[in-house]
């Protein structure tokens, strides 16, 4: 399915900015495309991948079978987008799995139904000038160093820090670029709440050809009592700050980042105690050759506050594994890709150093660690 569609006109291969790929997986460099007249060019890309998952001390999910070894859909998605015109659009649709460390594995069909639906990302974008653009719709978050879908990231499963971040929000975003500086500001609904009470901002500076520093700040400016599978109450009423450093030198990529989140108490919406998390992670990958690479991730996160003490009429605020909990993880992901075909395996270890009774791993929520093995393979057309 690679290459231009026959009978629709030839076009030179061009890189597409969406969806983003953080490596080591590479998108099809010559996707299907056609002339769209005044709308520029229309491109069709997609991912068809499968996932295998096996783990110790599984957390019961929506489907009790998810604690057992399983095979599932990783991605059955397609993207349609236009480029080369002042007004463009991007639409991503299909079924997807969103595995993350330290949480229950949920099957792709359930994830798609409960979170963002069969069209998770869709927006229009207007280029106002070579430096300014505005986009609106279902937008990928500006927050964090890891993206939403498996094929976008160094590792198959996202990490513990990702669990504190919104993945997709509905809103409006303004973008600015000028040489080494890129900036974006968005007014959105945070954790997919439907209340447009969040502001997110990002500024990145390419200090050298090999190094970039990115600052991110986001949070709600008005409280929301909405809650749901995609809208955890505490996180949706939080503020999040990132410092992300990216270093690329030939086959080596290093990406350390820090994250701080804080939640204010508000009994009117059910948050009885304030809480905060502080975490750090190092993402790394090394390309052994054109086809083989290896990626790794190490991270640590700690929760402070949120406990009720001796108060009898208080509900604790839990952002991790109970008030004052701490956790860390290690992940390694070897990857093979040839053309549009790829396969990769993953081994991870997650440890809770301090856990509140009833918030741990296992069927009785009393275990402190989890080993997870994963496999993902498919095509990126």
From TrEMBL:
<dbReference type="Pfam" id="PF07642">
    <property type="entry name" value="BBP2"/>
</dbReference>
<dbReference type="InterPro" id="IPR011486">
    <property type="entry name" value="BBP2"/>
</dbReference>
<protein>
    <submittedName>
        <fullName>Carbamoyl-phosphate synthase</fullName>
    </submittedName>
</protein>
């Amino acid at each position: 399915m690679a290459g231009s569609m026959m009978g629709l006109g030839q076009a030179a291969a061009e890189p597409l900015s969406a969806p983003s790929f953080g490596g080591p997986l590479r998108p099809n460099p010559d996707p299907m495309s056609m002339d769209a007249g005044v709308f520029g060019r229309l491109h069709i890309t997609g991912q068809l991948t499968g996932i295998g998952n096996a783990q110790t001390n599984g957390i019961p999910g929506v489907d009790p079978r998810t604690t057992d070894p399983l095979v599932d859909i990783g991605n059955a998605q397609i993207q349609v987008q236009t480029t080369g015109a002042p007004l463009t659009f991007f639409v991503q649709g299909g079924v997807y799995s969103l595995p993350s460390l330290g949480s229950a594995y949920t099957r792709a069909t359930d994830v798609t139904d409960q979170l963002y639906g069969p069209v998770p990302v869709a927006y229009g974008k207007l280029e106002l000038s070579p430096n300014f653009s505005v986009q609106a719709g279902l937008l990928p978050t500006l927050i964090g160093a890891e993206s939403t879908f498996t094929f976008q990231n160094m590792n198959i499963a996202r990490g513990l820090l990702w669990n504190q971040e919104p993945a997709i929000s509905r809103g409006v975003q303004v973008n600015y670029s000028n040489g080494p500086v890129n900036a974006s500001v968005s007014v959105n609904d945070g954790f997919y709440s439907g209340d447009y009470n969040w502001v997110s901002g990002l500024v990145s500076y390419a200090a050298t050809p090999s190094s970039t520093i990115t600052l991110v700040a986001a949070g709600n400016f008005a409280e929301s009592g909405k809650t749901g599978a995609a809208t955890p109450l505490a996180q949706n009423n939080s503020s999040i700050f990132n410092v992300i450093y990216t270093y690329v030198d030939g086959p080596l990529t290093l990406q350390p980042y820090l994250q701080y989140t804080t939640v204010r108490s508000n009994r009117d919406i059910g948050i009885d105690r304030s809480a905060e998390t502080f975490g750090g992670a190092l993402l790394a990958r090394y390309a052994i050759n054109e086809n083989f690479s290896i990626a790794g991730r190490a991270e640590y996160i700690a929760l402070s506050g949120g406990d009720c003490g001796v108060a009898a009429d208080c509900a604790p605020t839990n952002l991790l594994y109970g008030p004052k909990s701490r956790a860390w993880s290690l992940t390694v992901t070897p990857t093979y890709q040839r053309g549009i075909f790829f396969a990769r395996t993953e081994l991870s270890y997650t440890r809770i150093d301090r856990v509140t009774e009833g918030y741990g791993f296992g069927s009785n929520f009393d275990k402190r660690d989890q080993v997870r093995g994963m496999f993902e393979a498919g095509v990126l057309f």
